[in-house]
Structure to design on (381 residues):
């Protein structure tokens, strides 16, 4: 792509509403294109991540409603159950693609996002990962985006907090053995050691496992004061519970992914007390940002539920849908080359999940905060 073309595109998008100044979900732009934007969502509706899939579905539906009412953009969504499995997702993508010419693919999970990268680039379909943290997902100047922060960004924040605020110069790592856990642990360890910390151990837990007694017994010999956990809710919660039952007194620090189930607190019990968690989304019920307040009110009205920190999945889906609608409207048609460039140029989009800007890798920049479980609730640390 030539320099002149880049400059021309940039000038065009400044005219249609993308600027270095903050923009909001309801900002007006050119007239909406005729016809509906065809999208597909590859989400887990069965299996251990099913609740996250449902939260994402809720966010997509709210985003679709908002796109129609505020932007005049009509959007159709087809849902496919992936069980959060890359092979199942690939089969679902191929099957749906043979029947439908969708332009946007919303996906859940690092493994799924990585698996779909080759086919979406071949087909010129824009993929937006909604729970896709692995650094391996990052590819420059293609059709893959994510509005979920890379594990590297989260790790940099957590390492800084651990070393500088908690004065934790040594730490242990427990990771789930999948694309997310391996990628998150790798990023955390690299950053921790880069900043002068010492990793005492790094242990893996198998997806679906429930008995961690022998692992906890083995880890106790290290007397680690701090342990970083990169795990999903079921395994992470049960590890925390059994660790406390067996007398482990370490300060646990976890990726926000550990919270992605309604029954996390029930599974972990008192084992979750004191857990430190990073989050890059607003504390919904405490936020004064109009975009967040509107999302909370819409969610409460439609689903009769108060959005909490676990609804990060719904908030990111909501924003991804609105970003897609803005791109569709700005381009005047479902031209994914144009829409892709619109997303690359997006700066300071003020949404329900925070303020979003994309780089040329399709990654977002985020600010984080540290939360702690106290008496079964998350509070600022």
């Amino acid at each position: 792509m030539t320099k002149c073309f880049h400059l021309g595109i940039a000038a065009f998008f400044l005219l249609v509403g993308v600027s270095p100044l903050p923009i909001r979900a309801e900002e007006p732009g050119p007239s909406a294109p005729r016809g509906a934007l065809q999208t597909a969502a590859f989400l887990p509706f069965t299996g251990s991540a099913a609740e996250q899939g449902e939260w994402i579905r809720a966010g997509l539906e709210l985003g679709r409603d908002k796109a129609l009412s505020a932007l005049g953009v009509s959007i159709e969504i087809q849902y496919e159950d992936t069980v959060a499995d890359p092979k199942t997702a690939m089969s679902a993508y191929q099957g749906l693609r043979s029947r439908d010419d969708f332009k946007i693919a919303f996906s859940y999970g690092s493994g799924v996002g990585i698996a779909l990268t080759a086919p979406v680039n071949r087909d010129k379909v824009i993929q937006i990962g909604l729970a896709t943290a692995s650094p391996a997902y990052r590819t420059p100047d293609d059709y893959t985006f994510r509005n979920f922060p890379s594990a590297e960004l989260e790790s940099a924040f957590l390492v800084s907090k651990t070393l500088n605020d908690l004065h934790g110069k040594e730490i242990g790592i427990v990771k789930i053995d999948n694309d997310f856990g391996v990628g998150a642990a790798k990023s955390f360890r690299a950053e921790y050691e880069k900043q002068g910390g010492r990793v005492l151990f790094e242990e893996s837990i198998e997806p679906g496992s429930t008995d961690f007694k022998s692992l906890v017994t083995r880890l106790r010999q290290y007397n680690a004061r701090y342990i970083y956990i990169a795990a999903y809710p079921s395994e992470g919660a049960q590890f925390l519970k059994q660790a406390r039952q067996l007398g482990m007194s370490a300060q646990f620090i976890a990726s926000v992914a550990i919270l992605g189930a309604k029954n996390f607190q029930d599974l972990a019990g008192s084992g979750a007390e004191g857990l430190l968690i990073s989050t890059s989304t607003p504390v919904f019920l405490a936020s004064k940002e109009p975009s967040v307040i509107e999302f909370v009110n819409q969610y409460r009205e439609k689903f009769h539920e108060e959005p909490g920190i676990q609804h990060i999945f719904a908030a990111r889906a909501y924003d991804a849908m609105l970003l897609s609608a803005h791109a569709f409207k700005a381009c005047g048609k479902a031209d994914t080359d144009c829409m892709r460039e619109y997303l690359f140029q997006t700066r300071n989009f003020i949404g329900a999940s925070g303020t979003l800007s994309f780089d040329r890798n399709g990654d977002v920049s985020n600010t984080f905060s540290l939360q702690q479980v106290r008496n079964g609730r998350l509070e600022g640390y």
Q: What stands out?
A: The radius of gyration is 21 Å. Confidence is low (pLDDT under 50) at residues 1-21.
